[in-house]
Write a structure and sequence with these properties.
The structure is a homodimer of 205-residue chains.
Chain A: H1 4-22, E1 27-28, H2 30-37, H3 41-50, E2 61-62, H4 63-73, E3 80-85, H5 89-96, E4 105-111, E5 126-127, H6 132-139, E6 143-146, H7 150-162, E7 167-170, E8 183-186, H8 189-204
Parallel strand pairs in A: 3-4, 3-6, 4-5, 6-7, 7-8
Antiparallel strand pairs in A: 1-2
Helix pairs in contact in A: 1-4, 2-3
Chain A binds a DNA duplex (30 and 30 nucleotides) through helix 3.
Chain lengths: 205, 205
DNA sequence: TATAATATGTTACAAAGATCACAAAAATAA
DNA sequence: TTATTTTTGTGATCTTTGTAACATATTATA
């Protein structure tokens, strides 16, 4: 089970490869991609090999073909729909973010308890939480973003999982308690900065 | 060198411990903290042991004392100042975020090329990039957040490192090229969602 | 056709990180 | 005082992840 990190890198490779197509580059080598994504060439080859992606000795890999193969692994041939709960600062930043299309992802609906935020003011419709079960079912959603305050995050998490959500990207600074069949990825912006700060403090010593 | 992960956890423990003080809890056990932060009790003890933090057999750890000890490790006794470059969606979300105080961190200045965003409209003063060297020096800043578009991220990174910044939290979807004395932590919100999506797709199969 | 050059693919090795198992200490109860 | 219970601290083990080394394939060239 050598998974998470490898997938993370595949995603990076893919983004990079898309840039190459835009530049008209058709063929690449493991070390090209390695340099661009900050890993070692061996790692690139091993990642590909892991998923049965083969290159041509001496000629490297074909960019378009490689993208297709990674797309297949990442199920990128259909748009992946996501919902967002919480239209605070982070929620708003996310719905304005334009990088999703390039990656075949789409936030299809947002939710907030505050009636003032509901409606069609934003790029994406914002519903009250009561509508969540219905929309998750209708749109067949598996993944959600939690961008609500700490105090309500667990409740939202419960609501999501009860309605069939299986993956959660959590911005609230709490460890959500849930079944281990649900995959949760916590993002702690403060935490990252604190860690950074620790190391930059130390290197001078 | 058993570092990064351990530090990340210490930061989590600390936040948790601060909650405990607010609830009036004075003494805790490794498994209490473990449950709250989603790790194993052994891990908690080992993390502490790593930094010479000792508990009392049978009585666990004293919350206040523990916070003090973690504070010392993380240099939390002075406010850690950060700057932010890029006042787009993410930048704005960050300056409105209220979790920094609790963690003794502060975004002291932001920078943007767009004159419309400069000035004192926001909670934090926004300067043109030309002012960056001066402010970094004056405020003695070591860490910065890059929240500019992909196209200018590398330039901003160069500017930052030339002026003595040693830690960067990067939101732009590019691998920044720089000296290996500079610590860079990349946050790819899309990437995280894509990875999540991969796994939630798979578990049903 | 033989040789040299260049990339891949895989196996072996190393390092980092997490888990397990258990001894030792402290408190409580008998 | 002795036995029992509870919780810490750590050495050993296992798992995951990354690095290095090298054999193999392909192309180009003489």
């Amino acid at each position: 089970m050598l998974i998470y990190k490898t997938i993370t890198r595949l995603i990076q490779y893919r983004l990079c490869l898309i840039h190459y197509t835009e530049l008209g580059i058709e063929q690449i080598f493991s070390y090209t991609l390695a340099k661009e994504t900050g890993v070692s060439p061996e790692q690139v080859r091993k990642d590909f090999s892991q998923f049965g992606i083969r290159g041509n000795k001496k000629a490297g890999y074909n960019v378009l073909q490689l993208i297709e193969q990674i797309n297949a692994i990442l199920s990128k041939n259909t748009v992946q729909k996501i919902i967002l709960v919480g239209m605070g600062n982070i929620g708003k930043a996310l719905i304005h973010y334009k990088g999703f299309e390039n990656r075949n992802m789409q936030i299809v609906a947002a939710f907030d308890i505050d009636p003032a935020k509901q409606g069609r003011k934003y790029r994406i419709p914002v519903y009250p939480l009561q509508k969540l079960p219905q929309i998750v079912r209708r749109e067949d959603i598996s993944n959600a973003i939690i961008a609500v305050p700490e105090s309500t995050a667990q409740q939202v998490c419960d609501l999501l999982t009860e309605n069939g959500i299986r993956g959660i990207l959590n911005f609230a600074p709490v460890i959500l308690k849930t079944s281990d069949r649900i995959m949760i990825k916590n993002i702690s912006l403060c935490g990252e900065l604190e860690a950074l700060s620790y190391f930059t403090q130390r290197t001078t010593v």
